[in-house]
Each structure stands twice: as structure tokens, then as C-alpha cells.
Amino acid sequence: MIFYIIILLLLIAAVLWLGQLVLANPGVATITWGAWSVEMKTATLVAMVVLACVAFYLLVSLLRHVLGMRRNFSRYRAAKLGSKANRALTQGLIQLTEGHWEKAEKLLVDHAPHSDTPLLNYLAAARAAHMREAYERRDELLKQAIESDGKANVAVGVSQADMQYGSGQLEQAHATLLRLRELAPKHPYVLKLLTKVLYRQENWDALLELLPDLVKQNLLKTEDMNKVQGATLKAMFQHYAKDKQTGKLQAMWKKLPAPIRDNPEAILLYGEALHAAGDDLACASLIGSILNKRWDDGLAGLYGRIQHHSLGNAIQQAEKWQLSQPDNNPALLLLLARLYNQQKLWGMAKSYYESSLNQAPNAEGYLELAELLETMKEPENAQRCYRLGLRYCIRSEGEKLSLTPTQRPQVNPQAAKAPELTPYNGL
């Protein structure tokens, strides 16, 4: 403001000085243009020049004012349309939430060009089209969303993949997510959504490659992570175990992240795969190393089912574990019962089976004991065990197992003085 005042004062001073100079030195000025010439006093010429400058200034000011009015009108119109578009965005989102998807899409799309956030308009409109199962229209609106904001490729792609997954378009969602992984390799939601897609596709090979990233970023809840991890490992382990590829089994296990290899469920799945592949020696070594550090009922159950190279050593190992475990640990008792059964020490096996099942009913345990009792020529006890096992499978309720003691063989009364026979103890 001060600058303009100074300029104005300088102009007034210059005009006054020029006026005094002209008045002090009057004269005649001649303007010649070809054959045409005009004579006038110098003061008149100066006045005309000043008036011309003033007129030019006024003309320029008028033009600027007119153009400014047009510009202001354009700004006013744009502001009005923008305000209307913002209200339409709010109304469109309300319609979308209430389930009026066609109305929502029309509101959002019609006002998107004048919106301050056209990306939101097109994304919401695409969601409305998706909800009414107009998938081609949805993809078209998503393309318009990208065109409205070239930096929103990942945001639009995530929305598209999410909607494709929700509508069961797993192949399309997979392709979209692979493209997004190239654009944003560490994007957490892209990884989480890709995990869901691969799980539903049962694409275990690809899912196995994602497990390290899932563990590292901790994106899934513990329950969901265990579900995904368990299904993936089980499928891959079964694949290699079916073909007896123990080398690939062990190589795969070594490549898994340490948190997975320390997971009891993963260890159990790996042990079962080694057993299914026929490598009981490696399975026994794995279980032994784990149970020496910490007890796990699932691994103990598997240890009793595998074929041991030396049953004597296996029983000695189990007896050592018994020293560090409570006497009534049903899993350990069942383990000892199975080992003694394999060694054909049937009396010992029967006793351990009975003690274990009375504390923790087990369908496999009932069956194994019933078969053992048939071997021991105790059909009544075997039938009782079969019945209890069947009822447990149906009702999931355990019952007290009480086996009838083995009857003594009948003795001739006339031979009363004969030495008594000891009951059959299965040894």
C-alpha cells in the first residue's frame, strides 16, 4: 500500500513539474503524418498526452474489472457446484449405507466432476455398483477413480481386490493383489487380503511363501494365524509324506521361521508327516528332543504310536519323563501303555490303559485297550470297552472304566491241597 502511495505522489510531482516547464517555455508543436500536419501549442499537446494516458489507464482498468467479474463469476459458480457436490457426496454415502445403491451411484457419479474429492465419489460409487452386483460397471468406475487421481493406484487396487474377494471372484482378486504386491510389497492389507484369497483357493505352495511375512508383520489374530498356518503346513507335509519325500520334508521344515518351528502344533504336524513318510527314527528323535525340554501331550501321543528302533530305550526314556511329570498324567500313562503293548507286556499295558482312560477318556485308547483285551482272551472286558468307547464318541462324556478281574481257573475239590494257580497277568 505504501509503495502505491509513493508512486502516486511521484507521478503528481512529475506532472506538476512538467506543467510548470511547459508554461515557462510556451511554444508551438507540429505533428506531420505524410501530407497531413497539425500545429498546436505545446501546452495543448502535453494536456492531450496526459488525457490519453488517463483514458488508457481507465480503459485498462475497465477491462480488468470486466474480466475480473467473469473470473469471479466462474469462481462463484465453481464454489457453488463444489458445495453442491460435497452435499451430494454426503447424501450419496447415506444412500449407500441405507442400501439405496442405484440412487447412491447416480448422486456420486453426477457430482464427481465438481467435487473436491472426486476419488471418494468414484470409489463410493464403485462400491454401490458392487453391492448391486454390477461388476463391469464397478470396474469402469474404479478406472475413473484412477483417472481422477493418478497417485491412488494402490488405494483403488485394494478396494477392487477387496470387492472381488467379497463377490467370490478369487482369480481376479488374486491377479489384482499380485499387481499390488509389485507396487507396494510391504503393504499390510494387501498381504492380509492375499492370504485370505490363497487360503480359499487352497493354494498352499503360494501361501507357504507368505508365512514368513505373516509371522514377521503379525497381521493376523492368533486364532486365524494358527488356522492358516496349520492348514498350509498340513497340506504341504501330507503332499511330501504321501510320496515318501522325507528329504524335502526336512528341507521345508528348516526353511520355516523360528517362531513356526517352535510352535507345538507345527511340530506335531511335522512329526506326523515324518511318521506317515515312514521315517519313524527321525520322528522319535524330534519328539524326544522336544519332550526333554518341555512336555506336550500331542507329541507324547504320537511317540507312543510310532515304531521304535529299540523299544527298551523308548520305554526307559518314557520312564525318565515320568519322573518329571505328575503320576496321574493321562497322556504319559497312555504313552507307556502303548509302548508296553508294542513290547507285548500286556499286563503292564492293560494297567496303564485303564489308569489313563479313567482320568482322560480317549477314543483311540478305548479301541486299543479293547483289541488288547481280545488278545488277552478277555471278551467281556473287551465288549465293555467297545461300548464305552462308542458312547464316548457319540456323547463325548467319559464313564468309569471298571474291568472284571480275570477269573481264577476252577480247581477240583478233591485236589484241595493242590497249590493255587496265580491269575493270568498277561506276561
From TrEMBL:
- What UniProt keywords are attached to this protein's entry? Cell inner membrane, Cell membrane, Membrane, Porphyrin biosynthesis, Transmembrane, Transmembrane helix
Q: Report the superkingdom from the record.
A: Bacteria
* Domain called HemY N-terminal: residue spans: 28-132
Family matches, as InterPro entries: Heme_biosyn_assoc_TPR_pro (IPR005254), HemY_N (IPR010817), TPR-like_helical_dom_sf (IPR011990)
Which GO BP terms sit in this record?
A: heme metabolic process; porphyrin-containing compound biosynthetic process
Q: Where is this region: Disordered?
A: 404-427
Q: In which pathway does it act?
A: Porphyrin-containing compound metabolism; protoheme biosynthesis
The record lists the membrane-crossing segments as 43-67
Signal peptide span per the entry?
Answer: none
Query: Which cellular component appears as one GO term in the record?
Result: plasma membrane
Localization, per the record, is: Cell inner membrane
Does Membrane count among this protein's keywords? yes
Question: Per its UniProt record, what Pfam families does this chain match?
Answer: HemY_N
Identify its membrane topology class. Multi-pass membrane protein
Here the segments flagged for biased composition (Polar residues) are 404-413
**What functional role does this protein have?**
Involved in a late step of protoheme IX synthesis.
Task: Fetch the NCBIfam families from UniProt.
Answer: TPR_hemY_coli (TIGR00540)
Name-wise, this protein is: HemY domain protein
